[in-house]
Amino acid sequence: MGNIEITHSDTHVTALSFVDDMANRTPSEHPLVKQTQAQLLEYFEGKREKFQLPINPEGTEFQKKVWLLLLKIPFGRTLSYLKLSQMSGNIKAIRAIAAAVGKNPILILIPCHRIIGSNGQMIGYSGGIPRKKSLLELEQKNPQKSLF
Asked: Is 112 among the catalytic positions?
């Protein structure tokens, strides 16, 4: 997957992104960073399906509404941009919704990687399509167990 940079305030994760070069970055010892690292490790080991971290993504009210919808997509499942726009109650806003998905600042924790094209095609992931594919494969290997 590569390196992950965690950005935070005193109380919330504000961004999570993939970075190629960590050379000029100073690791944070903040407890929230340690907690985020631990939960991400559990996720990548197949031991965590939901994150329990305080998040506060910066964006417009519209973007935040879209990101809340992303949080409703179950682990191991995917949804098309069209279905996401239907969930929003405004199918005509599909382009604006796709743009909001692309602006998600907290990758993985807000699972924008679970959004795919209507034909099942891997499209649109700011972390790169190979990473998107890897995240989806990880979740498919550890599908969410049914409660019923």
From this structure: yes
SS3 100: helix
The one catalytic residue in 108, 112, 115, 136 is: 112
Distances (CA, A) of 30 to 5, 6, 108: 13, 11, 20
Report the amino acid identity of residue 104: N
Give the pair of three-digit tokens for residue 42.
């559990």
92 burial type by CB count under 10 A (0-12 exposed, 13-18 middle, 19+ buried) = exposed
**Residue-wise pLDDT tens digits, 21-79:** 776 777 788 999 999 999 999 999 999 999 999 999 999 999 999 999 999 999 999 99
Handedness of CA 99, 64, 87, 36 (dihedral sign): positive
Q: What is the number of H-type helices and E-type strands within the chain?
A: 5, 4
Q: What angle do CA 71, 77, 80 make, to 5 degrees?
A: 80
The helix (run of H) or strand (run of E) holding residue 25 is: none
